[in-house]
From TrEMBL:
Subunit structure: Homodimer.
BP-aspect Gene Ontology terms: L-arginine biosynthetic process; L-arginine catabolic process; lysine biosynthetic process via diaminopimelate
Presence of the UniProt keyword Glycoprotein in the record: no
Gene from which the chain derives: argD
Keyword Cytoplasm tagged: yes
Organism: Kosakonia oryziphila
Database matches in SUPFAM superfamilies: PLP-dependent transferases (SSF53383)
Keywords: Amino-acid biosynthesis, Aminotransferase, Arginine biosynthesis, Cytoplasm, Lysine biosynthesis, Pyridoxal phosphate, Transferase
Family membership: Belongs to the class-III pyridoxal-phosphate-dependent aminotransferase family. ArgD subfamily.
Catalytic activity: N-succinyl-(2S,6S)-2,6-diaminopimelate + 2-oxoglutarate = (S)-2-succinylamino-6-oxoheptanedioate + L-glutamate; N(2)-acetyl-L-ornithine + 2-oxoglutarate = N-acetyl-L-glutamate 5-semialdehyde + L-glutamate
Annotated positions binding N(2)-acetyl-L-ornithine: R141, T280
Name under which the protein is recorded: Acetylornithine/succinyldiaminopimelate aminotransferase
Binding site for pyridoxal 5'-phosphate: G105, A106, F138, D223, E224, V225, Q226, T281
Recorded metabolic or biological pathway in which this protein acts: Amino-acid biosynthesis; L-arginine biosynthesis; N(2)-acetyl-L-ornithine from L-glutamate: step 4/4; Amino-acid biosynthesis; L-lysine biosynthesis via DAP pathway; LL-2,6-diaminopimelate from (S)-tetrahydrodipicolinate (succinylase route): step 2/3
Protein's cellular compartments: Cytoplasm
Length: 406
């Protein structure tokens, strides 16, 4: 078999569930990537908010290689030191008393929803099974989590879906209050919707959900898969709001690029998950535990978290300066280094075109639906990389406007 790999091989060999860029990155350092042809890109995509410390961070490489030289895997019949140390780091830094480790955000949310159902059934009876989620949410791609996500485009092809899941309007407490009742076992919500358009929650909305869940004995789950691990300028976004959930899910940036997810909860809820109730073969393996521990050592510091808030200002100021000259965006929003730029009505549905033009200029950005360009760069991206990347991005936007003159 030839060792020459091209982008066309994807179309030949892979299940066509993605539409990847026409270039293949082969090397990364910090917030820069290079493709097979040696072209350089500033990375504002961050692996979809995963690469918290950029590419090939020395501390993460060291943690991975040192653990790899010791042992990689034992399965859940044994525990290991790296994952126990990681659990203690997370519990010490959050509201939680117990942790469960898995491989992804979808798995973390699956575990959270299963915990909520079991707690409700054990404590109140089988009738307490309802789940309230929100329109335009995204919680993963398993059948349970894609059903909880309020985007029919991701779930409608896989019906029949798990029952007793209802969707309220995000940031609309009245809409949620109509659905939450004594038969509700869980409410699952993102403190800031990521895939749904980079929409931060209102504080009153999250506070109201907390009160409704307490009143109706429902488990409040915060999906912090995208907002967690320093992304918003706090270790977890719930800390911005002064609202404490019963369960928190985290993944993406937790491993800085190495696959790991976690569900965090209190003793009250965690104790219902006894031996054999749930599990995973790879979850909490020593490699993932070692790398995630190194990530938290760096991210959960005032220097990094304050730096995220500073970098937010760098992005917003430069994006707004461009938008003042060329009104392309109707809103520039977000927290920390999760930023969304909503296209004006005239250019609705064309976010993908902008991202493709940006790549051609040497900067990688994300989209959140057809109308929002999304930025989720490394938390330690330099000021020079922000400036250079945004210069390339604005050049792409100018080309977009020139090509889309009405």
């Amino acid at each position: 078999m030839s060792t020459s790999i091209t982008r066309e091989n994807f179309d030949q060999w892979m299940l066509p569930v993605y539409a990847p860029a026409p270039f293949i990155p082969v090397r990364g350092e910090g917030s820069r990537l290079w493709d097979q042809q040696g072209n350089e890109y500033i990375d504002f995509a961050g692996g979809i908010a995963v690469n918290a410390l950029g590419h090939a961070h020395p501390a993460l490489c060291k943690a991975l290689s040192e653990q790899a030289a010791r042992f990689w895997h034992t399965g859940n019949g044994y525990t290991n030191e790296p994952v126990l140390k990681l659990a203690k780091q997370l519990l010490d830094a959050t509201f939680a008393d117990r942790a469960f480790f898995c491989n992804s955000g979808a798995e973390a949310n699956e575990a959270a929803l299963k915990l909520a159902r079991k707690y409700a059934h054990d404590t109140f009876g089988p009738q307490k099974s309802g789940i309230v989620a929100f329109k335009n949410a995204f919680h993963g791609r398993t059948l349970f989590t894609v059903s909880a996500g309020g985007q029919p485009a991701y779930s409608q092809d896989f019906a029949p879906l798990p029952p007793q899941i209802q969707h309220a309007i995000y940031n609309d407490l009245a809409s949620a209050s109509v659905l939450i009742n004594d038969d509700t076992c869980a409410v699952i919500v993102e403190p800031m919707q990521g895939e749904g358009g980079v929409v931060p929650a209102n504080q009153a909305f999250l506070q109201g959900l907390r009160e409704l869940c307490t009143r109706h004995n429902a488990v409040l789950i915060f999906d912090e898969v995208q907002t967690g691990v320093g992304r918003t300028g706090e270790l977890y976004a719930y800390m911005h709001y002064g609202v404490t959930p019963d369960v928190l899910t985290t993944a993406k940036a937790l491993g800085g690029g190495f696959p790991i997810g976690a569900m965090l909860t209190t003793e009250t809820f965690g104790k219902v998950m006894n031996v054999g109730t749930h599990g995973t073969t790879y979850g909490g393996n020593p490699l993932a535990g070692a790398v995630a521990g190194a990530v938290l050592d760096i991210v959960n510091t005032p220097e990094t978290l304050d730096g995220v808030k500073q970098r937010h200002q760098w992005f917003v100021e430069q994006l707004m300066a461009f938008n003042d000259r060329h009104p392309l965006f109707s809103d520039i929003r977000g927290l920390g280094l999760l930023i969304g730029c909503q296209l004006v009505t005239e250019h609705a549905g064309k976010a993908k075109q902008i991202s493709q033009l940006a790549a051609a200029e040497g900067v990688m950005v994300l989209i959140a639906g057809g109308n929002v360009v999304r930025f989720a760069p490394a938390l330690n991206i330099s000021e020079e990389e922000v400036r250079t990347g945004l210069t390339r991005f604005t050049r792409a936007c100018e080309k977009f406007l020139a090509e889309n003159i009405s």
